[in-house]
Design brief:
This protein is mostly helical. The chain is built from 16 helices and eight strands. Among the domains are: 69 residues, no CATH class; 88 residues, no CATH class; 35 residues, no CATH class. Strand 5 and strand 6 form a beta hairpin.
Length: 345
């Protein structure tokens, strides 16, 4: 099957022919679909249906809960069942909200100094071979500047239409930005566009803060959704993965590691560009101006040298003593600037 040609063929069909093809495909959807349907849940005892349900529930981490619910035969819940369920929900929400808050605190401290400081670094971007499927488009390409088009695209259909005849595209990303050799400052072109509404686009200067909010909002909502609990925990765990202690000899090695982790996470509703910022925030340029040393998310803020900000983010006795022992305290982080009322957006 030639995906690109098939899409082009569908796009040229008249309305009546399109619906004819659409209805024909519809007859095969449930027979070929690997995602469980309502029918699969109703016939969960069959091997095929069970495999479909397992395929999803193992990924989201709630297999036992789903099968317990499916196998329940009594229409009414006992008071004991109801109380047990409510207690588990309350306890789970308290735990999940706390964990999500702690994850946010670690990530925001790590991304504190990631900013957009330039209009265009003139990077060519990263090469992608065409065709590209819709999931990859939504995850890695949507709203990002494509060098060959000299613009971004906002939908998959627009992307397919504008890239017809091309074999490759070059995509501007944070990973390919040339603004700062430390790769903690970026340009607007490599950042792409962001939308407040259908017509209102902008580029956030404080991209580290913005990326943290985009990642953790999704994680918090997922933590409170029983169907997505395991998925959110998985994403957070992958983002916090302990990076190898060995140094990374150059930026290409850092880029390769970041891309590897991003591919491992996959498209779960958060665009890959936010993960790029989150992961890059943990790599620091060494004194040789070439190699990089990774840091844990929870401790990466220490590299900034802002003792006031470090105490605010991590109010331990040791950090408090370091703060009190300092002859001079400069507010250099966003956190400490907000505290001293010296922050400018």
């Amino acid at each position: 099957m030639d995906y690109k040609k098939d899409v082009e063929k569908l796009n040229t069909l008249n309305r009546d022919k399109y619906f004819e093809v659409y209805q024909e495909l519809g007859k095969k959807v449930f027979a070929e679909c690997v995602v469980p349907t309502i029918y699969d849940f109703a016939t969960a005892d069959s091997k095929k249906s069970k495999e479909k349900i397992m395929r999803i529930s193992q990924y989201t981490g709630n297999t036992d809960d789903i099968f317990d619910s499916i196998q329940k035969r009594d229409a009414l819940y006992t008071e004991e069942d109801s109380e047990k369920f409510m207690n588990s929900v309350i306890a789970s929400n308290v735990t999940d909200i706390t964990q999500s808050g702690y994850f946010y605190k670690k990530l925001i401290s790590s991304c504190d100094d990631m900013d957009i400081t330039q209009n265009d670094c003139k990077s060519k971007g990263e090469e992608f071979s065409l065709p590209i499927d819709e999931s990859t488009y939504n995850y890695k390409i949507k709203f990002r500047h494509i060098s060959e088009l000299k613009s971004h695209t906002e939908s998959y259909s627009e992307f397919i239409e504008k890239t017809q005849g091309l074999d490759v595209i070059h995509l501007r990303t944070f990973l390919t930005c040339k603004t700062d050799p430390k790769h903690r400052k970026f340009c607007k072109k490599c950042a792409g566009i962001y939308k407040r509404s259908h017509e209102d686009t902008f580029v956030p200067k404080n991209i580290g803060v913005y990326s943290t909010l985009m990642i953790t909002e999704h994680a918090t909502q997922g933590a409170l959704d029983s169907m997505n609990k395991g998925l959110s925990e998985r994403v957070n765990t992958i983002l916090e993965t302990k990076l190898e202690k060995k140094g990374y000899p150059d930026y290409s090695a850092v880029k390769q590691k970041v891309e590897e982790i991003i591919d491992k996470i996959g498209d779960v509703g958060v665009q890959s560009r936010y993960y790029e910022i989150a992961l890059l925030s943990r790599f620091y340029l060494n004194g040789d101006g070439k190699s990089f040393t990774p840091s844990a998310m929870a401790t990466s803020f220490l590299k900034q040298g802002d003792k006031l900000g470090n105490f605010i983010y991590r109010p331990t006795e040791n950090n408090f003593i370091k703060l009190l022992s300092s002859k001079r305290v400069e507010a250099t982080s966003k956190k400490s600037k907000l505290m001293t009322d010296s922050y400018e957006a």
